[in-house]
Design brief:
By secondary structure, the chain is mostly helical. The chain has five helices and two strands, in the order H-H-H-H-E-E-H. It is 27% helix and 2% strand.
Length: 293
Amino acid sequence: MLEADPFEDDYITQRRDLFWFLTCIRAWRTNPWLPATLLLIIIGSISTLIATQALGPAASFAERVALGVGVALPFVVTRAFMQILGGGSATKLQVATAADLACCDLSRQDLTDLQIRGRDLTSARLTRCNLLAADLMGSLMLDVDLSRSIARRARFDYADMTEAIGHRTDLRDASLVGTNLTDGLFERADFRGAQLIDATLMNCDLRRAAFSTANLHGADLRGADLRGADLRHCVLRSVSLQGADLRGARLEGADLDGIKVDDLTIWPDGDAKLFGSFELSEDDLELLSTPPD
């Protein structure tokens, strides 16, 4: 029997959106523009309140709104110019220019759009980071900790992320083409819409991970723990699933043509089909999924 779908109400996504905002706020120590922005918001709010009170009770709602927008507009424009003239995290600059990032603790930093291709981040701590659209292509990321980080649209192509930790990491629309994630721990990670073409995920812990609409063409998932994973509408062509555990996984609408399985592959219904090691076409899979008489 299939487990309840943990992604149906998108509750995890909502929590991550809130966490992304909190991550940025917590980076105020290394980003001087954040407290400046907060100060402008406070001043603008007080000015708007004073101005609307000055209108008196006879003022209409539209007049109050118009006055509030008029008072707040200069503060918004000022903040925009501040960002253009000098916005940028000091930590981000230090990371981008550092010679050695191995074992560094960069937890809770705002590293949006960070460009550090081919760098050594072995055993680095990137927990609860904002890595939105960051580029770490070809980096050495052995044993890196990305737990609860926001890495939407980030690039990890051909990076070595062996034994990486990514509990609840948001990797939506990320690019992990050819990435080595062997022995990784990505329980409840969000890979929706991600590109995992030819990626290696051998022996990965992917329990209850979300992969819907992701492209895993040619990926190596031998021995992976996919219990309760959401694989709906995924491209799983030519994927290696020998020894994988798919109990409770969702496979509706997935492209399963040419997947490779063996007698150790456990299907969503909990059965291990004892047919040896070979490739299955979509017609074969339809026959296997037909309940017995």
